Amino acid sequence: MKHLLEPDAWKSLKSWLAERGHKAFRAAQIRKWVFEGRAESFEAMSDLPKQLRGDLAAEFTLWTSKATRHLTSDDGTEKLLLELPGGSRNAAEGVPYSAQQIECVLLRDDDRRTICISTQVGCAMGCVFCASGLDGVDRNLTSGEIVEQMLLLQRLLPAEERLSNIVVMGMGEPLANLDNLLPALDEANADDGLGISHRRITISTVGLPKQLHKLCELNTRYHLAVSLHAPTDELRNEIVPVNKNIGLAEIIAAADRYLEVSNRRLTFEYVLLAGINDQPQHARELAALLGGRMALLNVIPYNPVAGLPYKTPSGNAVNRFRDILLEAGINVKFRQRKGDAINAACGQLRRSQPPLVPIQPEPHLQETPHAGHR
Ligand code: SAH
């Protein structure tokens, strides 16, 4: 079975249709059903000839993953845990869950409908506070698997609502899987795809300079967010281990170049970890590092991960940190956490099972099987 959501499958669809005596315009019709019509199956593509629907179903599949959990939170956040086929690791190797699981999230904010998608099964970056990378990376997702997340999340919206934004902030390091990510984002962006403007698509990265330069060369227009988490190499080497081989200066230079080429404002992300990177001295160093650039600093309170020793700072510590940055004239936003109760931070849900004890008793949470596919 070929996965129709893979770019190669779309490319060959016209000749596939021709070989079977179907009209060429059917290809556009099928795409419309998939991206706009939110079709669940080929059978549901009601204006295609029955023969064609059968031929498609015999050769292609729309969905390769299975939603094994669907959690909803009363702030409108919904999260899917997707089980993928294949894979090399299992419980026998000490991974306490099926290694072939990824997470993706739908967030509702006023009129925005933002989805957060994964690019890898696990992550190799090893950021010490993050749940996704605790067991390393298993594999890159294919383009089709990335597109599939977008479509499954879109299916959670009522027919009159559209996806407005994408953040590539789920499991994995997007720049470590650029070859598969970019074709998937092309589909998100395409007029005959999801039609989401470049400006509304954010790639979040730990900061891999070589790949950032590649984005510059490819002339992409996506919004870039760099996960900073520390103002000095000394501290960042501890929190974000890959920094040891790279260093802040090189990352910031590459990010600045991307800003010039793409003409997009940069965002830096900074997760506040109590007692580690939330001290007044860190705020002052951060102000010195970022001062004078066209950048937004997004400060995110830590979302505690079971089994890890890190804590969310107190309100006082957060205020103190904020005041120093504001006084220094830094364009800073303190983000609210969303979907805490359903472990919305990347990688958390996958690790929470079995069992899911802390989540189920909450009366405002309901868990439903994802009705969408298969
Ligand atoms: N690898 C990419 C994208 C995935 S993580 C990156 O590093 O940017 C997306 C963002 O969520 C990153 O800024 C990451 O540091 C942050 N994050 C990860 N775990 C978190 C947690 N438990 N609480 C708050 N933010 C977290």
Total beta strands = 15
Overall geometry comes to elongated
Q: Please give the share of residues in helix.
A: 25-40%
Distance between the termini: 15 Å
User: SSE order in H/E notation?
Assistant: EHHHEEEEEEEHEHEHEHHEHEHEHE
Give the biggest sheet. 11 strands, mixed
Structural class: alpha/beta
Query: Could you tell me which ligands this complex binds, including any ions or cofactors?
Result: S-adenosyl-L-homocysteine
Q: Give the mean pLDDT.
A: 89
With helices defined by DSSP (H or I, 4 residues minimum), what is the helix count?
11
Q: How large a portion of the residues is in β-strands, by DSSP E? A: 15-25%
Runs in which pLDDT lies below 50 for 5 or more consecutive residues are 353-374
Strands across the major sheet, in which order? 14-13-12-11-10-9-6-5-4-3-15
Radius of gyration: 21 Å
**Oligomeric state as shown:** single chain
